[in-house]
Structures are given as structure tokens and as C-alpha cells.
Design brief:
By secondary structure, this protein is mainly alpha-helical. It has one domain. Helices cover 70% and strands 1% of the residues. A hairpin with a 2-residue loop joins strand 1 and strand 2.
């Protein structure tokens, strides 16, 4: 199901991934004892695996960005337009969130917090630090505990590697499999961020999408179920055997990323799942998912440090409601206008 050249169900999947990050951060802040629950130590951990969700962001970005330029002539002009669109997509909402978090910094000064949360917002950055952190593409400082938005490292990865993505697309036009293999080797032997490989997985899926869909159609329902189980087991391999998961990482670099890549393949191939993810509430969550990701951690931390309510469910409902409202405002007032501006200024 496609709308205005966008894959609506993929937006929804991004929203669900952002929700997974929200849930695990909520648990770490409000209910850390839950981390010893049997669910967290089983493959069902997949439902709240924030690390896997972040890897999915990168793989999905590789896929979506590749689809947006797959048939475009790569030139200096097209590259500058592509880069401009990425800047206008990422920076405006990020800068607003950064500035408001700087203003809200006094609310982070209480010390009666969990040991994990106590590791963040330890130092007031000052105006100079604010401008340094606003650069994003070059991290000053790099330590999350010293940054206003501790989770913005993912945006740095997104920004830097997406600027390299047209090169991956150009190489993939010759041979997408060879490009993936060369990327894998480069990550193995050179001081290259492994996240490049995860973007390359998204590029591969974009180029091989039709082939993968045909293979999916050949599978029976039982085959689809086995495929999904294999993906989840690959993602949460450490819950079955830590030693086995380490062996997988020696081969795959990160086993979770390959499991999430399998789930993306299933998603682009299954029309029934696409219809399920195309319902309006999930569409809305998908639209605001970037702002939701930006704001959720800040909101959780402020509410925890200033909340008088000890009921975890009440805290979850309140923090989720505030995060959704703030994210919706950020989307409609900041993200959407800049998206429209980018289409107007940088149209092909």
C-alpha cells in the first residue's frame, strides 16, 4: 500500500520500532527490576529490544533512501539535492529539541533517580557546549553522558552514513551483492563504523526487492512462520546461548541486524502484514516517529525526577500521552513545514 510515493506500512513499522525504544527506556527508568523478568530473558525480549529497533532504523533508512534515488542519475547536482533533503529532514526537529532540552536542563538536577539514569545530564554544557552539540555530524563531546540528548548518536550515524549512501547505490547498480561483500570486508579490516554494513543491508533489500517478494510467494504459510521464527531467534540469539550469539557476531558482525533485515524482507513481501500496519493509528505513530524518538527520553527523565506517582502503569500512560502530544506538535509545527520546504526547494 503506497501513498504519495511513500510506503505507509514502513512508516508504521518505524513508529513501532520507536515505541520499542520508548518501552525499554521506560522500564530502565521506572521499573528496572522488570529487566530480570523471564520475558526479558527469552526470545520474547524482541518486543522490547531497543537495540534491535535502532538497528532496524538504519536498515530501513538504507532501504527507503535507496528507493528514493534508485533510478536517479547520480551527479553533483542530484547529490547536493539529496544531501539538502537529509539536512532539512533531520536538523530542524533535532535543533528545536536540543534547544528546549537546554532550557529545561534545571529539571534534570535532582539526584533521587535510578543509577542508570544518573549517568546522564551530569554536566551543564553552557552556550558554547550547546552550539558544539548542535553540529551533530561531528560529535563534541562524543560521550552520551555529557550530551543534552544522550540518544542523538543515532542521528549522527544516520546523517553521516546517509551522505555516503549514494555511493553505495552507485556501486550496487553494478553488483549489489558484491557491494555488500566489499562493505562487509571493509568493516572487518578497516576502521569503518559497522553501521555502514547495516545501511548496505537496506540497499541490498531495495535492489533485490522484487526477487525477494517472488521467493516469499513460493513459501507456504508454514514457511512464512518458520521465516519469522528464524528472524526472531536470530535477533535474540543471546537469550538462547550467549556463546552461540558471540559466534554469530564473529561471522555476521551483529546478529541482531541480520535478523531485523529478515523481518524487513518479510514486511515488504507480505501484503497481509502491510494492510495491518496501514491502519490510521499506526500511520499517525509512523508520521511522528522521528519527533517521538527525539523527545521520549527527555520526557521520561523529567517525569521520573519530578513525579509523585509510584504506579508504573499510571506513569507509563502519562509519559506516553505527553510524548505523543509533544511529538505531534513537533511534527506539525516543525517537521512537516520543512518537509514541504524541501520538496519545493529541492525537487528533482
Amino acid at each position: 500500500m503506497q501513498l504519495s510515493n511513500r510506503y505507509v506500512y514502513l512508516d508504521s513499522s518505524r513508529g513501532l520500532a520507536a515505541m520499542m525504544v520508548f518501552v525499554i527506556h521506560f522500564i530502565r527508568i521506572f521499573s528496572p527490576a522488570f529487566l530480570s523478568n523471564e520475558i526479558v530473558n527469552s526470545p520474547l525480549k524482541f518486543l522490547i529490544d531497543g537495540d534491535a529497533a535502532v538497528l532496524y532504523f538504519f536498515i530501513l533508512s538504507g532501504f527507503v533512501l535507496t528507493k528514493s534515488i534508485q533510478n536517479t542519475k547520480i551527479s553533483v547536482k542530484s547529490y547536493l539535492k539529496f544531501s539538502g533533503r537529509r539536512f532539512l529532514r533531520i536538523y530542524p526537529a533535532f535543533l528545536l529539541t536540543l534547544l528546549l532540552t537546554f532550557w529545561l536542563f534545571p529539571l534534570f538536577t535532582q539526584t533521587d533517580v535510578t543509577s542508570w539514569l544518573n549517568g546522564f545530564w551530569k554536566t551543564y554544557p553552557g552556550t558554547k557546549g550547546l552550539w558544539e552539540q548542535a553540529i551533530l555530524i561531528y560529535r563534541i563531546p562524543n560521550d552520551p553522558s555529557l550530551r543534552l540528548l544522550p540518544h542523538d548518536w543515532t542521528l549522527s550515524v544516520e546523517m553521516v552514513i546517509s551522505l555516503l549512501l549514494p555511493l553505495l547505490v552507485l556501486l550496487s547498480r553494478k553488483s549489489v551483492w558484491l557491494t555488500l561483500i566489499l562493505t562487509y570486508i571493509a568493516v572487518r579490516v578497516l576502521p569503518i563504523d559497522p553501521f555502514v554494513l547495516f545501511f548496505a543491508l537496506g540497499v541490498l533489500i531495495a535492489f533485490q526487492g522484487e526477487f525477494l517478494k517472488e521467493q516469499w510467494k513460493k513459501l507456504s504459510l508454514f514457511g512464512h512462520v518458520i521465516f519469522a521464527i528464524l528472524a526472531v531467534l536470530l535477533i535474540e540469539a543471546e537469550t538462547l546461548s550467549v556463546g552461540f550469539s558471540r559466534i554469530l557476531d564473529l561471522i555476521l558482525i551483529n546478529h541482531k541486524a541480520w535478523g531485523m533485515a529478515l523481518l524487513l524482507i518479510g514486511l515488504i513481501s507480505s501484503e497481509s502484514i502491510q494492510k495491518l500496519l496501514s491502519i490510521n493509528p499506526l500511520n499517525f505513530l509512523g508520521k511522528i516517529s522521528y519527533s517521538f524518538y527525539l523527545w521520549h527520553f527527555v520526557i521520561l527523565a523529567i517525569l521520573f525526577q519530578n513525579s509523585l506517582n509510584t504506579n508504573p502503569l499510571a506513569n507509563f500512560g502519562l509519559s506516553l500521552m505527553i510524548a505523543l502530544v509533544v511529538s505531534a506538535l513537533s511534527f506539525f509545527l516543525i517537521e512537516r513545514p520543512f518537509l514541504l520546504l524541501s520538496k519545493k526547494w529541492l525537487k528533482d
